[in-house]
Design goal:
Blueprint: H1 3-24, E1 29-34, E2 40-46, E3 52-58, H2 69-77, E4 81-85, H3 103-127, E5 131-141, H4 143-154, E6 158-164, H5 170-177, E7 184-189, H6 196-207, E8 214-218, H7 233-248, H8 264-272, H9 277-291, H10 300-312, H11 316-329, H12 334-346, H13 350-364, H14 372-388
Parallel strand pairs: 3-4, 3-5, 5-6, 6-7, 7-8
Antiparallel strand pairs: 1-2, 2-4
Helix pairs in contact: 2-7, 4-5, 6-8, 8-9, 9-11, 10-11, 10-12, 11-12, 12-13, 12-14, 13-14
Length: about 400
């Protein structure tokens, strides 16, 4: 055979091999799971052409499982089996529609129902014969970030995480701090529609002690999986990440040569999160305000969120100190006083709860900064508390 003929034959061979490999990839399989309470959960299993690791992808709370389809197909083509599913209340899954729930119902669903639903999806994934059950990755976007971290807390089989544009709670942060052997991939865009998210994801990145952690930071791209459209390279980066941390070197990523700088605000948030931290930051705030009366060391909304998290975790005294710090930093905000009132009420300090609730009402009368929906929510919460305390508003 001549050289030209040989090259042509080889080209045909490789073309046929590629076609056969593509044809050998199984079609995505639609799946219906039953949650513990009988709610039907719809998912899709993307099997690889060979036995290999598994990845569970958890969607954001303004989308559904379809946002992962292209990434899931790329992962399955790379030798990784993938399961996506609609959280209850989303897409094809049962349950009350999430966007119709009250904030209280949302919280109950997220804390009491989602963990069991996600565990059902996790068990389905690891039970598939194609899946190496002790080598699993989890990816999450937005609210899926906390869901992914919590899944890793519950399942030691998780060897790698991908977190896009999200936050986690106190327990999730503690888990990241104490997981030096868990490689994590982070991504966010500066134009995220939820402004605190950029700082939140930078904070989570700073918490991970894993030397192979990776951060992708865009100036634009939107929220969560929405970043895939303007940044078509991002799914490829995620595929490379999971191939490295699940196939080539399970549970390990090469040491990062370039670490993302940690903004001062993120360092301040982390200090507030620690025992004794609020008092230290209070001193920092006093010193900063002596030089600049308008100095701001942190975002009001993030610290407000932080205070409620400590309260939910049982750290009532810590929550009070955090929210007192927020009042000191934002003394004209009705929301800071309302939140501090909640913390005092939760700790049984009714007089201080009443005092701060009334201060919130007073500030509401001249508040033109907060949106109407927030002002109405604060007013309703304050009036409910005062009624509970036997002090009806006029």
């Amino acid at each position: 055979m001549g050289r030209v003929a040989f090259i042509r034959a080889a080209a045909v061979f490789f073309l046929l091999t590629s076609i056969c490999s593509a044809e050998a990839l199984p079609a995505p399989r639609e799946v219906t799971l039953s949650a513990a309470d009988g709610t039907k959960l719809k998912g899709t299993f993307f099997a690889s052409h060979k036995t290999g690791p598994g990845v569970l992808l958890l969607h954001q709370c303004n989308r559904q499982r379809g946002v992962w389809e292209d990434l899931a197909k790329k992962l399955s083509a790379s030798g990784i089996n993938v399961f996506t599913f609609d959280l209850r209340g989303f897409g094809e899954s049962g349950g009350e529609r999430y966007d119709k729930l009250t904030p209280q119902q949302e919280g109950q669903t997220e804390l009491q129902l989602w963990p069991g639903d996600i565990d059902a999806a996790f068990q389905y994934l690891v039970s598939q014969p194609e899946v190496t059950r002790n080598v699993i990755g989890v990816g999450g976007a937005s609210c899926g970030v906390n869901n992914a971290i919590q899944a890793a807390r519950r399942h030691s089989e998780v060897k790698s995480l991908v977190l896009l544009s999200g936050n986690t709670n106190f327990d999730g942060r503690q888990f990241l701090r104490n997981s030096p052997n868990l490689p994590v991939f982070f991504a966010v865009a500066d134009d995220d529609e939820f402004k605190p998210i950029v700082t939140a994801i930078e904070w989570l990145y700073s918490l991970s002690p894993n030397p192979g952690k990776k951060f992708v930071h865009y100036t634009n791209g939107g929220h969560g999986a929405d970043m895939f459209a303007p940044h078509p390279e991002l799914p490829g980066l995620i595929v490379d990440w999971f191939v490295t941390t699940l196939v080539k070197t399970p549970g390990h990523a090469p040491v990062s040569r370039e670490l993302q700088p940690i903004p001062q605000e993120v360092q301040t948030l982390d200090l507030i999160d620690q025992p004794g931290g609020p008092a230290k930051v209070m001193r920092m705030l006093v010193e900063a305000r002596q030089k600049d009366p308008k100095a701001s060391l942190f975002r009001e909304d993030l610290v407000n969120y932080l205070g409620y998290e400590h309260a939910q975790a049982g750290d009532k005294k810590g929550a009070i100190e955090i929210l007192k710090l927020n009042v000191a930093a934002y003394p004209n905000s009705p929301n800071t006083y309302d939140s501090l009132s909640d913390a005092y009420l939760g700790d049984g300090q009714n007089d201080l709860a009443r005092q701060n609730a009334k201060k919130a009402l007073e500030l509401l009368q001249s508040d033109t900064t907060d949106p109407e929906q927030l002002r109405n929510g604060i007013r309703a919460n304050v009036e409910r508390k005062l009624k509970q305390l036997g002090d009806e508003t006029r």
